[in-house]
Amino acid sequence: MTFDTKAFRQALGAFPTGVAVIIASEGAHNTGITVNSFTSVSLDPPLVLWCLAKDSQRYDVFVGAPRFTISILGTEHEEVSSRLARQGEHRLGGFPLTGTSLGVPVLSEALATFECEHHGAQDGGDHTILLGKVLRFSRREGAPLIFHGGRYGALSGI
Fold it and tell me: What structural domains and CATH numbers belong to the chain?
């Protein structure tokens, strides 16, 4: 019996997720990527994780980054998410950024931001699971951007 990876991906798409942008710095250049694999891991110590495809053109930047930031996107950030989700698109020009004490910016007006130091990496098949220790975070009210069934959307009733 063969495993139908397309059908598997479609089944996974039945689970709605939030959308985040991860930013790392490589010298003076900031690189961003859209992910929907962000989740909390631990409160003590404060740990989060996200997953990165091993064939990503941005793989070396993120796996080698000693620090990175996570910006949780609101519904107003669909364009940011779409652009940074594409292969080869990692420029942050034109997007409003806010500096952090880590030297790695976050997206301005994100619903939540997390400033992280690299805490570890684990093999995850065709992805690498990256752990971050949260050093600082912030939060604001707003409607979250979600991804479901291959499309962006919003939660209703909040």
Answer: 18-143 (2.30.110.10)
Who contacts 57 (Cβ-Cβ below 8 Å, separation ≥6)? 87, 88, 90
Model pLDDT for residues 108-138, shown as the tens digit of each residue: 999 999 999 999 999 999 999 999 999 999 9
The rounded distance, in Å, linking the Cα atoms of 50 and 88 is 19
Query: What is the mean pLDDT of the segment spanning 39-50?
Result: 97
Q: For the segment 57-76, what is each residue's pLDDT rounded down to a tens digit? A: 999 999 999 999 999 999 99
How far apart are alpha carbons 126 and 9 in whole angstroms? 14
Contact (CB, 8 A) for 132 and 47: yes
Dist CA 87 CA 155 (whole Å): 27
Contact 116, 68 (CB under 8 A): yes
Among 8, 68, 65, 70, which residue's Cα sits nearest to residue 37? 70
